[in-house]
Specification:
The complex is a heterodimer of chains A (about 400) and B (about 240). Chain A has helices at about 5-25, 30-55, 220-225, 260-275, 330-340, 355, 360-380, 395-405, and strands at about 1-5, 60-65, 70, 75-85, 90-100, 105, 110-115, 120-130, 135-145, 150-155, 160-165, 205, 230, 240-245, 255, 260, 280-285, 295-300, 305, 320-325, 345-350, 385-390. Chain A is an alpha+beta fold. Chain A starts with a strand and ends with a helix. Chain B has helices at about 1-25, 35-45, 55-70, 75-95, 100-125, 140-145, 155-175, 190-210, 215-239. Chain B is globular, with a radius of gyration of 21 Å. The termini of chain B are far apart. The chains are: A alpha+beta (about 400), B mainly alpha (about 240). Chains A and B meet through strand 1, helix 1 and helix 2 of A and helix 5, helix 7, helix 8 and helix 9 of B.
């Protein structure tokens, strides 16, 4: 809790005048006014702060929406925040929606108003991003004040909305009609929501093995008259959490191929669309400045691909992280990201030196590629995480392989 | 209605300055025409937005006083400047009441009060002349070269006006909030804090007078203690 800017300045001015009055004039009529203000602010703060102490973020019902989401890079995204005071009395509030990597194009993300019980306070503004990728809105900061607006209690509403910016609108949505029977246990290669539905999803075990009682398919065992023991090893829904991350150094243009981040995002979306059909829960996240990660859960809505609201990244599943490791801090950030997570993590280190070395002699190009490869390996040497170096041409295959061999 | 309330509040806030100016006028000797011109030209600036032609008063008076000064006659220039200083406590309040932020207006009010007290003190000595306003009487306490003035009835009236102006100023600050209106002052918290602050401030004056303490030093000690208490309390209550 703190004094508001207005009262803080009045307090400072009063103190300065008091010191001046005592040092120079010494007249009681000069001493009294600033002393009165100092004591008034003190006593009022003691009284008002007790009332504000009870106010918490639970007092506010809130929603934050962004539309369209996903959006096309450069397109305006309309953001709406609605706040409602659940109970209590009228409270003057300053509201500010924080944003990461977004430019304001219309309106303001700040609002100064009075929150009243059961009345909505709303603010609308528009944001955009010229770069493809995931951007983040939130948290929402509230400065709740007393009636005289002398004391301020700062609150943070745990509210965030990821916005995904894509390169072009025509990629949404991609409809998948072909039946892909892969015969392998991997997300994204079957349109059936049950793992193993296309193959014999119950497996017969050799007589020598002794499975756990809870995994045995007792009905099937009864049907076969006890000759064969079946276990329900793959009999579960394909609701795997698959987390795709974009790291540093991807926002770079390669001649003839375009922006790397855009290419990577397009590739990921192709995989994600398939995984969505089969019931997996794909996530996209991106490392932002300051080591924070903006995360978005993707799902199908009535109007195609949609981006989920504020949710934390799941702690389980498959995590695939594509990066060029151009930020020294990134290794620590990755370590923090995977710490305490049961997710099977894979890092794809993108080596772009083959693109840069196109104009060089074959020896020089090879040296350049080797050196970049060494740099990438060193950058993740402190992490005990499976990693692989890929170039831009082999990226689609590498992404495919990463999801295939995932232990979900 | 709001305009009427603002006018009344401005009247109360300007009360000490008006009283000090009236005391100064009544006791001033050797009033020079340029002194009057200085007062009028500064006041005319208040309506310069609506009537730009009044700016001519300022230009004519300044150019003529400067011309006389260049010819070797110093007093008219001094008198003109003294006129500016004389009306300054009222001018700065009138000029800034509606346009400035509450904190800026509070600072301006303190400045105005300092000049007003300076005027009333000079008027009480009975030797106030326009030229005198230029002397550094504000440092007399430090140098000890001025005669001691025993507070009379004019200081009592001035004190009452200061108290009224403080209430009006507080209303002025509080009415800029979302809950504007005179009822802001009747809020339980505001009323309690106001009474406690007034009682403490006045108590300090009485204590310092009867207990032979140095009021100023005690006031500074109280201000320091209040600041520390405020910081500690707000930090603790936020946890």
């Amino acid at each position: 809790m703190r004094l508001s800017g207005t009262y803080k300045r009045i307090y400072v001015y009063s103190t300065l005048l008091l010191i001046y009055a005592v040092a120079v004039t010494g007249h009681p009529l000069v001493i009294l006014p600033p002393l009165f203000f100092i004591l008034f602010i003190l006593f009022y703060a003691l009284i008002a702060a007790r009332g504000l102490r009870r106010v918490s973020s639970d007092w506010f019902f809130h929603t934050l929406t962004a539309s369209p989401n996903p959006a096309v890079a450069g397109e305006n995204v309309k953001v709406e925040l609605a706040l409602r005071l659940r109970h209590g009395e009228e409270l003057p509030v300053d509201v500010k929606v924080e944003s990461e990597g977004l430019s304001m194009v219309e309106g303001s993300p700040s609002l100064r108003s009075v929150a009243r019980p059961n009345q909505y306070l709303s603010m609308v503004f528009a944001v955009t991003s010229r770069q493809v990728g995931i951007r983040s809105l939130g948290p929402v900061r509230l400065a709740v004040k007393d009636r005289l607006e002398a004391i301020v209690r700062e609150l943070e509403l745990p509210l965030s909305a990821p916005i995904v910016f894509l390169s072009a609108p025509q990629r949404l949505p991609i409809s998948i009609t072909a039946r892909v029977a892969s015969r392998i246990h991997a997300p994204g290669y079957s349109r059936d929501p049950i793992v193993g539905l296309e193959e014999d999803y119950r497996i017969s075990l050799p007589e020598t093995s002794s499975p756990e009682a809870r995994s045995v398919d007792w009905r099937r065992l009864a049907r076969t008259g006890g000759d064969e023991t079946y276990v329900k090893e793959f009999d579960r829904r394909r609701s795997a959490e698959i987390l795709y991350g974009l790291g540093s150094g991807l926002d770079i243009d390669v001649p003839g191929k375009g922006n790397v981040q855009q290419l990577a995002l397009d590739l990921l979306l192709q995989i994600i669309f398939i995984q969505l059909r089969e019931g997996s829960r794909p996530w996209l996240f991106q490392r932002m400045a300051g080591g924070k990660f903006s995360a978005a859960r993707l799902f199908y809505g009535e109007r195609g691909l949609r981006v989920g609201g504020s949710e934390d990244l799941p702690r389980q599943g498959l995590l695939i992280y594509l990066t060029r490791m151009t930020d020294r801090q990134e290794e620590i950030d990755i370590a923090k990201l995977v710490a305490g997570r049961k997710a099977s993590t894979k890092i794809l280190l993108l080596n772009l030196s083959s693109e840069a070395g196109r104009g060089l002699s074959s020896d020089d190009a090879e040296k350049l590629q080797q050196r970049e490869g060494e740099r990438l390996r060193e950058a993740v040497a402190g992490l005990d995480i499976w990693h692989s170096i890929v170039d831009l041409d082999s990226l689609p295959e590498a992404l495919d392989r990463s999801t295939l061999s995932g232990e979900l | 209605m709001r305009g009427l309330r603002d006018a009344a509040a401005l009247m109360l806030v300007s009360g000490p300055s008006l009283f000090a100016i009236s005391q100064g006028v009544s006791k001033m000797k050797d009033i020079d025409p340029f002194f009057v011109l200085g007062i009028i030209s500064l006041l005319s600036m208040l309506v310069a937005d609506r009537y730009p032609e009044v700016m001519s008063i300022l230009f004519v008076s300044t150019v003529s006083a400067l011309s006389i000064f260049m010819m070797g006659n110093f007093p008219p220039f001094l008198a003109l400047a003294s006129g500016y200083i004389f009306i300054l406590p009222l001018f700065i309040l009138l000029a800034s009441y509606l346009d400035s932020s509450p904190q800026s207006f509070t600072l301006i009010y303190f400045f105005s009060l300092l000049i007003a007290i300076y005027l009333i003190q000079e008027a009480a000595t009975g030797t106030l002349t326009p030229a005198y306003l230029f002397y550094p009487t504000i440092f007399y306490r430090v140098t000890g070269s001025r005669p001691q003035i025993s507070p009379g009835m004019d200081f009592v009236i001035f004190g009452i006006l200061v108290a009224a102006s403080l209430i009006a100023l507080l209303w002025g600050v509080a009415s800029r909030t979302s809950f504007a209106g005179y009822s802001t002052l009747l809020d339980r918290g505001v009323l309690s804090a106001g009474i406690a602050a007034s009682t403490s401030s006045l108590g300090l004056v009485f204590f310092s007078k009867y207990l032979g303490m140095i009021g100023g030093d005690l006031a500074v000690a109280i201000a320091i203690a209040a600041s520390i208490l405020l910081v500690i309390y707000l930090r603790r209550i936020a946890k």
